[in-house]
Design goal:
Layout lengths: L3 E4 L5 E4 L21 E4 L2 E7 L6 E8 L2 E2 L4 E4 L10 H7 L11 E6 L4 E6 L2 E6 L4 E5 L3 H10 L8 H10 L6 H15 L1
Antiparallel strand pairs: 1-2, 3-4, 4-5, 5-6, 5-7, 8-9, 9-10, 10-11
């Protein structure tokens, strides 16, 4: 699904504005008139290109460090849908076991700091606009809360509730750290 809108200030031009994608979109993508436009940040690049000889059809692709990331997908700019058309997809995406219901994920682009921050379960990363990446493992729920408060500016996010729900669904986002810590502790004793 691509979120497209028509902007009167651009002569009613249709633009891509999918703010929900974890992708570097910082302004509307003028895919109809700027056919060589690429949205990028550091090593992350998004391309939206017209499909040859298929009027109104476009392909969305993503590359990180010059390598494809995820599967390219197509959309038809001449087709529209209503919110009700997506109800089965929305319901399926919110069921236990669905892709985005099995991990903790927060991402924020901080253009003023020339970086993006990302949290996936207990892995925290800071990617700079020049392509640098710093990653670290968070060992406790308190560490996760602190990162979300200080780095993301989200001090009231219900982190503990989310982690408890994931645990009830069989996903322990801190388990790997606990296992590694136990291994280290046991190794130190011998």
């Amino acid at each position: 699904m691509g979120i497209l809108v028509r902007l009167l200030e651009l002569g009613n031009e249709q633009v891509y504005v999918d703010c929900g994608a974890a992708a570097p979109f910082f302004s509307p993508v003028r895919f109809e008139t700027d056919v060589n436009h690429a949205s990028s940040f550091g090593a992350d690049k998004i391309l939206i290109r017209a499909l040859p000889r298929e009027h109104g059809r476009y392909v969305y692709s993503r590359c990180v460090n010059g390598e494809p990331s995820g599967e390219p997908w197509e959309f038809n700019a001449n087709s529209s849908s209503e919110l009700d058309d997506f109800q089965p997809l929305i319901e399926g995406a919110n069921k236990p076991g669905a892709s985005f219901m099995t991990f903790l994920h927060c991402q924020l682009w901080q253009l003023g700091k020339s970086r993006s921050v990302s949290l996936v379960n207990n892995s925290f990363g800071i990617r700079s606009a020049d392509g640098g990446l710093v990653k670290r493992k968070l060992r406790t729920v308190e560490d996760i809360e602190q990162v979300l408060s200080e780095e993301f500016g989200l001090p009231r996010l219900p982190v503990r509730s989310a982690i408890e729900i994931l645990h009830e669904l069989g996903v322990d986002i801190l388990m790997l750290i606990r296992c590694k810590t136990l291994t280290c502790t046991c190794s130190n004793r011998s």
